[in-house]
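Sequence in, structure out.
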Amino acid sequence: MRVGLWGSMTEVLQAQPAQPAQPMPPGVAPEHAFTMRAPSNAFGMRIVWAILFFLPLAVVVTSAFLTPSAAGLGTHTQLGLAPCGFYEWTGLPCPGCGLTTCFAHMVRGEVIGASRANAFGVLLFLTTLVSLPFSLLGLWRGLSVSAVLERLSVDKMALILACGSIGVWLVRLLTIYFVY
């Protein structure tokens, strides 16, 4: 069973092993050929899952401590980071302008303020939140990272996110060009 792009977490974690398309190597039992359990390097898998859990968690927690900028961008300067070079050089926002501000709004439940800062950031924030339980379950159960990512069609999700980012940026640029 292949879980599609929008498959549920339960389907992913309770998926039955698929039948192999090619003959299995000697010494591999058919019932264990394509399980989502981590191979012999289970400790390494758990480290990867821990990273995949704690990094997004750190982003969300950090967002809670930031005050969203009224300008809609520049919140990241509260972290000691420099202003956006692209914005300073061109006067136009880059695709990432407003993402930190968006996250600071979203963690407070301010969806309208978040979408004004960077509409793509709303989708990215929700994706970040959804990744937390998946990575925690992967860590807890010792699942194979690559198998879970493949079953969740993460490559397709990443493509959708990238296209969304570029699309929102182009709309922002067109709005600036035609409104101002």
